[in-house]
Design a protein that fits this description.
With 204 residues, the protein is an alpha/beta fold. The chain is 43% helix and 11% strand. The longest helix has 17 residues. The radius of gyration is 19 Å and the shape is globular.
């Protein structure tokens, strides 16, 4: 099943990707030849995400403590199940069963896969437009969270706030409150559309 998230900075996108990928591997650990592909904008970032997935997998293990030999065996199996890729073309000698694409708004050589997991901060690149159109035509919900309170209120980061608010306004997206917000009565972005409409009408 396809999943798409376009959220503000520091809203936990990678954490949610890691959790989903770890669960995917857990559910298919005994399936021979099952592979997932981690598609990232650079290899060091992909290596970091792979390590986070493996750490999450081991944290979720139940039963007796994993011995050293079992740990080595399981880790080796996980390493073989996770391929790091620069695009969505896969590898010549293997099949990718599920793609996980991190920061797709800043990448090229992507395609819309109805079974993939996509997450990114917003950008106006062509693939972002393509995936938004696909989701609207197929009824796929786009998950969206506001940027962190700290970043939104931080001096020097106004450009990130303006870019995110403009993106949401232009694409008719109303983000949910940041998942770790401390506000009790609604998030800082709850009136985003109204504020942007007012500004737009004033400028017009």
């Amino acid at each position: 099943m396809m999943f798409v998230e376009i959220s503000g900075r520091q809203s936990g996108k990678t954490t949610r990707l890691v959790e989903h990928a770890s669960n995917e591997l857990s559910n298919n650990f005994m399936v021979s030849g099952y592979n997932i592909g981690i598609v990232t904008w650079n290899r060091p970032n992909g290596i970091k995400i792979r390590e986070l997935i493996i750490e999450k997998f081991f944290r979720d293990l139940t039963g007796p403590n994993t011995g050293v030999r079992s740990y080595i065996h399981i880790r080796g199996r996980l390493m073989n199940m996770i391929e790091l890729l620069p695009d969505m073309n896969g590898c010549m000698d293997s099949t990718i069963d599920k793609f996980y694409v991190d920061e797709f708004s800043y990448m090229s050589n992507l395609r819309v896969d109805p079974n993939a997991y996509y997450c990114s901060t917003p950008s106006a690149n062509e693939f972002t437009k393509e995936i938004i159109t696909f989701c609207r035509e197929r009824g796929v919900e786009i998950e969206t969270y506001d940027m962190s309170e700290g970043l939104r209120g931080s001096f020097g980061h106004e450009i990130f706030t303006e870019e995110f608010d403009s993106f949401c306004y232009e694409n008719y997206i109303h983000p949910k409150r940041h998942p770790f917000t401390t506000l009790e009565y609604g998030g800082v972005n709850d009136n985003l559309i109204l504020r942007r409409l007012k500004r737009h009408n004033f400028d017009g």
